[in-house]
Amino acid sequence: MSGSNAPIGVFDSGLGGLTVVREIIRQLPNESIIYFGDTARVPYGPKGEDTVIRYSQDIAGFLRKQKVKAMVIACNTATAHALPTLRAEQDVPVIGVIEPGARAAVAASRHLKIGVIGTRGTIRSRAYDKAIAKLAPDATVSTAACPLFVPLIEEGWLDSEPTRTIARGYLEPFTGGKIDTLVLGCTHYPLLKTVIGETIGRDVRLIDSAQETAAETARVLRENGIEATRSEAHYRFVASDDPEQFLAVGQRFLGAPLERVELVTLGA
Ligand code: DGL
């Protein structure tokens, strides 16, 4: 193949995956994107594996109908549960957020003492532990689920005293030199980078999987010879519920104005 101007399909349980879209736009400005946020069924974090796989299959089916040339699962929980299934079922490359995040953490960590925070589903799946162990068998990995972070971020409580108090509680087990690197293993967490960074201290490097996933997407497009040949990118944003809320809050995640959000209902 020699290039393709078909869009990249990106999906998340809701708005958080827009932090990945932001990075893809920054690193790959010629690529068109169709983003699906499953706002009708968010959050995925507390849900079981089979449910998250089924939801992800619904979305992948929708994106394939839009003729995407590659898919990015811009959701840690969906990557943790559904990446192998989608890779087996889809005839286009499927990129997740966990392998790129794990790779970046191993590269950044000085003493291979790595912490990972994410939703309950992501932490329970041990997907990060396995991905890091594969790259660096000697690494020590400590993990913590931070279920209150997602609702705080969705409500816009990014730099508030309650958020700081909760962050101190969640991050306490990592303090005292136990880790030198912390993976922000949830698409929402880059919005809490300031609070998390101040709480955990300057010596700990924070890994934002959005940046690494965009770099991985660039690599996969190049390796498959399906990079855009035109410099005319188009963006479509689709939500499964409440497009107005998506429009209002999504800009915070995207870091740019959003003009239109389509409504598409999937599955049950
Ligand atoms: N997008 C999810 C993730 O990255 C967080 C929100 C949710 O629980 O659905 O894990």
Features:
11 helices, alpha/beta, Rossmann fold, 4-stranded parallel β-sheet, 268 residues, globular, binds D-glutamic acid, 2 domains, 10 strands
Radius of gyration: 18 Å
Average pLDDT confidence is 95
Structural class: alpha/beta
| Biggest sheet character | 6 strands, parallel
Can you tell me the number of structural domains? 2
Walk me through what this model shows.
- This protein is α/β, with parallel strands linked by helices and 268 residues long.
- It has two domains: 8-96 and 211-263, Rossmann fold, CATH 3.40.50; 98-209, Rossmann fold (3-Layer(aba) Sandwich).
- Helices cover 45% and strands 16% of the residues.
- It has helices at residues 18-27, 49-65, 76-89, 98-108, 120-125, 127-135, 149-154, 161-171, 193-200, 209-224, 243-254, and strands at residues 8-12, 33-37, 70-73, 94-95, 113-118, 140-145, 181-185, 205-208, 235-239, 262-263.
- It has a six-stranded parallel sheet, sandwiched between helices.
- Strand 1, helix 1 and strand 2 form a beta-alpha-beta unit.
- The structure holds D-glutamic acid.
- Residues 12-14, 16, 42-45, 75-77, 118-119, 122, 150, 186-188 line the site of D-glutamic acid.
Summarize the structure.
By secondary structure, the protein is an alpha/beta fold. It has eleven helices and ten strands. The chain folds into two domains: 8-96 and 211-263, Rossmann fold (3-Layer(aba) Sandwich), CATH 3.40.50; 98-209, Rossmann fold (3-Layer(aba) Sandwich), CATH 3.40.50.
